[in-house]
Amino acid sequence: MTGLSFELFCMQLLTGISLGSIYALLALGLCLIFGMLNVVNFAHGAFFMVGAFLGVYFLGITGNFWLSLLITPLLTGCIGLVTERFLVRPLYGRGIDYPLLLTFGLSYVLIEAMRVTFGIEGLPSITPEGLGGAMNVGFGYFPKYRIFLIGATALILFVVWFFIQKTKYGLIIKAGAADQEIVKVLGIDIAKVWLFVFALGCAIAGLSGILASPTRSVNPEMGIPILAESFVVTVVGGMGSPVGAVVAGLLVGIVYSMTSLFFPDFAELSIFALMAVVLIIRPQGLFGKAGAMG
Amino acid sequence: MIFPFLMPYEALAVNILIFGLFAMGFNLLFGYMGLLSFGHAAFLGIGGYLTGISIVHYSLPWGLAILIGVIGAAIGGLLMGFLATRTRGIYFSMVTLALGQIVYFIFYKAESLTGGENGLRGVRVDNFEIFGIPVDLLNPLAKYYVILFFVVLAIWLISRILNSPLGAVMEAIRENEKRAAACGYDVARTKLLVFILSAAICGLAGSLRALHLSIVPIDSLNYLQSGQAVMMSILGGMGTFFGPFVGAAVMLFLEDIVTGYTKHWMAVVGIVFMFFVLFFPKGIWGSILSKLHISQDSSQ
User: Fold this and answer.
1) CA B195 from chain center: how many Å?
2) Is the ipTM of this complex over 0.90?
3) Are the beta carbons of B91 and A100 separated by less than 8 Å?
4) Can you give the pTM of this predicted structure?
5) Domain covering A14-281, topology
């Protein structure tokens, strides 16, 4: 490996972490919904895509990145609310495949809705003002935006962690995931909790969409590969484990960027190879409970 | 036999045959074993590409090319099934989806053999003879009957599988995996075996599609293509024998009409599909059967 400097290695590692941040957020959203409702949201990639579109759109009309960072997850969260209330809820108790099939159908509608609204070409992505250019990170110049991405992800993860672990509402969510019957007996409307958690998962998906939008092209099909990738993260990390989602997200991001440094032709394949290895050695995932799924 | 004359044009009839077979192969796993795969486009693609590559790059006879496509898809099914059947439930769907993406990338990257993004072009088979009778594959009607022959053969094979003891074990596993295991059936091996059979049938559908279209588009391997098999099965009725075929026919016929009016076919099919999931989970064919009180399930 002549010509490979330590600096280059570090840069690529940092790129991997910034890519992994997005994966971690996506997998966390999937994990929250699954842990609570036992539903895999097959429209998760589509929510990510809608988030990216709305984010770029609001950034375009308001010129304020922070404002669109706030509006976008609220809107995708609202779509999530409607989805849970009117489409997913009638399917509870009808077999585990049905919500999955329904959200798969929904992803078609969301993709087409964006095509109708914004055109099939997609939107040019904009790097928000003040976050363009590169900054010195000690071993070289690194894009400012990607540093921001890592920081923002850390903040979001902290907020979600704090909310679930340290607040009254988080306690209800945890209790509901552990035993919904007991929570019902205690006089809590579990349906509202489900509604909220589904919306929260969709809001996080939308948020990761807008955060990722400056680093990739925004088009109606962008959610398709990302769905497969976030499933890889979920399988590697272990279904229903938030810690697993975050660790595996970063791991997958780093594996991707390292492979693209050493064997660029195999970058896309590397993360799937990682998944295959995990499936053979530890089918329940790195942080999954044995016997739950594998 | 008169089917091609009922359709607006022969190509649609051929498409329905091919995708009907694709959906039936998929349903073998989903409807009869309860394993919802989101990666079956891989086998449609492998079958298509291997048949296409055999013809384009190695000038092999078309019969051999189809055989290579089917065997290749079966081997793909063995590899994918080995990994995927280690999981169950929702996990299985996620893993098959991800594994399907691997196949997509492999064929996408092998540009010198597969044509990459542009697809594999020039899969041409013109004239050949069967028992001295010349057959011209460029004649749409002749092509229809050749493909019909293979599809009927495969459907007959599927019905043999389902009526065999294996078919009974499959349904036993779908209904109660633990009890099937307790009865002494090797659940893991049955799952893998059915996965391979299902892959081979979908591979045949892919091979036939390569002959039909003369090209193999890279979209054959797309995740949405896997989803199409799922949609067709649900639309027609999963777990019924002819349901997926009916689903394929309805979906392709609908697509043909709708695309004449609007570009936004995906939204229409998405809404129709969600409607069926919510209100008609038995599908068209399944609902007709239950109206007529015909049970196709010997186990129920």
Assistant:
1) 12
2) no
3) no
4) 0.91
5) ABC transporter involved in vitamin B12 uptake, BtuC (1.10.3470)
